[in-house]
Amino acid sequence: MFGGLAHVAPYNRRDLSRLVRGASHHARPGPRMSLTDRIRKQFEESAELKRDAAQALAAPIATAVERITAALASDRKILVCGNGGSAADSQHLAAELVGRYERERPELAAIALTTDTSILTAVANDYTFEQVFARQVRALGREGDVLVAISTSGNSPNVVAAVEVARERDLVVVALTGRGGGRIATMLGEQDVNLCVPHERTARIQEVHLLILHCLCDGIDASLLGDE
User: Fold this and answer.
1) Which structural domain range is residue 210 located in?
2) Is residue 34 part of a domain?
3) Consecutive H or E run containing 42
4) For the residues 73-79, what does the mean pLDDT come to?
5) Are 115 and 91 in contact (CB under 8 A)?
6) CB 3.0–4.6 Å: which of 70, 127, 198, 200 could bond 131 by disulfide?
């Protein structure tokens, strides 16, 4: 969810103090929602979306599990990319696969493309930030590998560029998106899977993305080890 404020001047401590003091003067008229009610509303909205997403996404998630499991069984690897909170999700998924999710099993080949600061800064400096994932996919990706591409909008330029390279090199793409899927949704082929969260708000989309990642991990374990 990080991002969206890149062009906003940073606040200093005095600015923040004025902001806090002025909040009460700019409050909307009428009774204010209590902080407790506001927090409860967040939980309720998240739960409602997850129920809706379960209906829409259970079958596509199962397909994604099949694609990923087939790749791993064929000695292929999983590449994962995203920005900000989606970068953290990328690392989370890779860690669950290389380490373990909930059951003991052999290590699974997965690489988060978000972690090597030397590669990221070299490519961003020498080319553009748009190429930080694409060049890694071109260098590391092989036919039959899977790219898990995470973008809440489906329009992140560097994730779009990575998907373009993945399609060129015959990788399977599993996209985690929201807001209708954006540009990424228009790029996918028959072998690819778009797990598009039916919501507009970044925070809610990310919450469902995390649940999707856990569903993928659980499904992979069940496929490899059997139901528990």
Assistant:
1) 39-225
2) no
3) helix 35-73
4) 98
5) yes
6) 127
Looking at residue 213, its pLDDT comes to 98
What is the distance between the alpha carbons of residues 188 and 174, in angstroms, rounded to a whole number? 9
**What whole-number distance in Å separates Cα of residue 50 and Cα of residue 37?**
20
Cβ neighbour number for residue 128 with a 10 Å cutoff: 13
Tell me, rounded to whole angstroms, the distance of Cα 211 from its chain centroid: 11
Whether 23 is covered by a domain: the verdict is no
CA 193/CA 185 separation, integer angstroms: 9
Q: Which residues pair with 181 in a beta bridge?
A: none
Average pLDDT over residues 97-109: 97
The count of domains in the chain is 1
Give the span between the Cα atoms of 46 and 40, in whole angstroms: 10
Location of structure tokens 């590998």: 145
Amino acid identity for residue 158 in this structure: N
pLDDT digits (tens, 9 = 90+) for 174-188: 999 999 999 999 999
Confidence band, pLDDT 50/70/90 cuts, at residue 19: low
Distance of alpha carbon 19 from alpha carbon 22, whole angstroms: 5
Q: Give this prediction's pTM.
A: 0.89
At 26, is the pLDDT very low, low, confident or very high (cuts 50, 70, 90)?
A: low
pLDDT of residue 27 exceeding 70: no
DSSP letter at 31?
Answer: P
